[in-house]
Recover the amino acids of this structure.
């Protein structure tokens, strides 16, 4: 069982570069013992035109109909750099996922109830962004898909695992995990700072990222995305970085 408890969920850690808004791979219902990641100030000229051009294209495709607010995609945060938790390295990068048999692994270690509930809501075949967190430059690096729906997370019963939960019982497990499989790398790295620039622009003009949980529920390591949010962020891979 390589890289045990690699998807940690025990409180946010300070990002090494981003000093302003709180972004974290992990979270906890109890008071956090670690600092939160911070998101960088958006670059000058936060692009409203990007949203308007995207909106025009989408309206052309859909006849201008507004999509319903439903969550059908996800964002999964994981740490690409080594960090010990209770003596265990919780590092798990996209390269680690690609090195797994069949490029598939279980997404263990989630110890926040809302994040767990999101895991339990995931459906077979749904896609998610793989997000590198708590690193020099956080952001989206790849797309993965759900290949097994929620089932009990075995690490909650392992006393040697940093996410062991003595209050969880095998007959009624508290914590769940899913299996994910690598789909592809994004065409380019999409940094948090760029996503934030669009989020701030969309808050002003009603764009699809205005309520994105990456900025409204920053501490969650498992985050749902609407179809519009997913499509817009995915469209950024076609643009030149700012």
């Amino acid at each position: 069982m390589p890289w045990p408890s690699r998807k940690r969920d025990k409180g946010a850690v300070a990002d090494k570069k981003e000093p302003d808004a709180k972004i974290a791979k992990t979270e906890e219902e109890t008071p956090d013992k670690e600092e939160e990641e911070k998101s960088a100030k958006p670059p000058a000229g936060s692009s409203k035109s990007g949203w308007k051009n995207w909106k025009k294209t989408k309206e052309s495709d859909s006849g201008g109909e507004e999509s319903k607010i439903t969550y059908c995609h996800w964002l999964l945060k994981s740490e690409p750099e080594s960090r010990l938790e209770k003596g265990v390295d919780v590092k798990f990068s996209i390269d680690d996922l690609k090195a797994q048999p069949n490029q598939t692994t279980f997404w263990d270690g989630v110890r926040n109830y809302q994040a767990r509930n999101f895991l339990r809501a995931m459906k077979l075949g749904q896609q998610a962004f793989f997000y590198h967190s708590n690193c020099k430059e956080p952001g989206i690096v790849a797309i993965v898909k759900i290949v097994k729906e929620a089932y009990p997370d075995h690490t909650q019963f392992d006393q040697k695992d940093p996410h062991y939960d003595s209050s969880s019982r095998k007959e009624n497990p508290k914590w769940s995990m899913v299996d994910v499989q690598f789909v592809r790398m994004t065409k380019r790295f999409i940094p948090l700072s760029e996503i934030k620039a669009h989020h701030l622009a969309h808050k002003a003009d009603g764009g699809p990222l205005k309520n994105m949980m990456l900025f409204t529920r920053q501490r969650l390591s498992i985050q749902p995305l609407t179809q519009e949010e997913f499509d817009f962020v995915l469209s950024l891979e076609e643009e030149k970085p700012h």
About this structure: The radius of gyration is 18 Å. The helical segments are 48-62, 94-98, 113-121, 192-205, 213-216, 227-235. Residues 1-5, 8-49, 62-67 have pLDDT under 50 and may be disordered. The first helix runs from residue 48 to 62.
